[in-house]
């Protein structure tokens, strides 16, 4: 019986571990669209901190090297890419960033 209580507590704590501020799984980035000819071509988003994210599907209107953007991303650790350019992300929301 005690074993069952401990096991239940572990399961509850593990479930709560992902319930922090980022539990929705999305985060915002301000950065620059970059294009590389690697493996037939890949677009990435280079965040201000230097992290490069590989968007799963970047809308065509934003496929412009050097374009500054504000984007809401969702990390997709369940996917893989031949480019291995950076963490794979899903674009939830994207807009041109005109601020300097």
Question: What does this entry show, briefly?
Answer:
The protein has 100 residues and is α+β, with helices and mostly antiparallel strands. It has one helix spanning 2-17, and strands at residues 26-36, 42-47, 52-55, 68-75, 88-96.
| Tally of DSSP β-strands | 5
What are the low-pLDDT stretches, counting only 5+ consecutive residues below 50? 3-23
Task: Write down the domain tally.
Answer: 1
Estimate the helix proportion, in percent. 10-25%
Largest sheet: 5 strands, mixed, barrel
Global outline: globular
CATH superfamily: NigD-like N-terminal OB domain
One letter per element, helices H and strands E, the order comes to HEEEEE
Class of secondary structure makeup: alpha+beta
Topology:
Blueprint: H1 2-17, E1 26-36, E2 42-47, E3 52-55, E4 68-75, E5 88-96
Parallel strand pairs: 3-5
Antiparallel strand pairs: 1-2, 1-4, 2-3, 4-5
Describe this structure in words.
By secondary structure, the protein is of the alpha+beta class. It has one helix spanning 2-17, and strands at 26-36, 42-47, 52-55, 68-75, 88-96. It has a single domain, classed as OB fold (Dihydrolipoamide Acetyltransferase, E2P) (Beta Barrel), CATH 2.40.50. Strands 1-2-3-5-4 form a five-stranded mixed β-barrel. Strand 1 (26-36) and strand 2 (42-47) form a beta hairpin. It is globular.
Which key features would you list for this structure?
single chain, 100 residues, alpha+beta, OB fold (Dihydrolipoamide Acetyltransferase, E2P), five-stranded mixed beta barrel, 5 strands, 16% helix, disordered N terminus
């Amino acid at each position: 019986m005690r074993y069952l209580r401990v096991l239940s507590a572990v399961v509850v704590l593990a479930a709560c571990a992902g319930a922090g501020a980022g539990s929705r799984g999305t985060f915002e980035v301000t950065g620059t669209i970059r294009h590389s000819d690697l493996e037939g071509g890949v677009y990435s988003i280079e965040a201000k901190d230097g992290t490069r994210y590989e968007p799963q599907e970047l809308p065509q209107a934003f496929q412009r090297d050097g374009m500054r953007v504000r984007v809401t991303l969702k990390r997709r650790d369940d996917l893989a890419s031949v480019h291995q350019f950076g963490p794979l992300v899903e674009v939830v929301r994207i807009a041109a960033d005109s601020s300097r």
